[in-house]
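Can't paste images in this forum, so I'm doing it all in text. The chain is below; anyone willing to post the predicted structure tokens underneath?
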Amino acid sequence: MSAEAVIETRGVHKRFGGFTALKNVSVKVPAGKLTSIIGPNGAGKSTYFNLLSGALAPTEGQVFFEGRDVTGLKPHEFARIGIAKSFQITNLFPNFTALENARIALQAHVSRYGLWRRRETLEGLGAQALQLLELVGLQERANYLARELAHGQQRALEIAVALAARPKLLLMDEPTAGMSPEETKTMMGLIQGLARERTVVLVEHKMKMVMGISDHIVVLHHGELLAQGTPDDIRNNETVKAVYLGQGH
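Text version of the structure:
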């Protein structure tokens, strides 16, 4: 694993009342790699995702981004420093076209104070929006309303919206949830392409699916770090085999 970590957690705990969702999780996410966070249901994956994205602050421990302690920063501050996220549930404007969704996302990042500026001052955003759609394979669906797109295409559009912020780190929460096998294959190819240009962290429960595309894998179990390393490291880890592969995943 690269010594350079783009984001790192040191001894993070997360408690909700009397329930401990995460316990002493220390992970370094290598820069420029595709890292997958996996584990059975209830392993703490979504809670950990929310810590990495700033949606939750740890009860104990610290979060570092590019060496800077960002523990407790607000979610919009996480976005500002270069962390973008894509959720399990699509977050789009259903009655706007794919191109309009991408352009609105770009417009929001051009200026927080100038959303209602005259159109000529926003020249070029349409072309940039089309480039985003091309990046996720949606250029042929540019003029379709978001609600008219297939589920997998909606997920791809949400990724385009996330990429409008030009993030250094892209977080994706179960991007293939609810997809057909063909949509899943397309999404995996898209994720691999995106990971060539930026650090990607993927939260998944489908171990077999991520084994073939990940550079680095983090395994959580009952809120604790079970193992981390290369796919071969994880595949050959006896504890992971006993706890995870034995469940038929």
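DSSP finds nine helices and ten strands in the chain. The radius of gyration is 18 Å.
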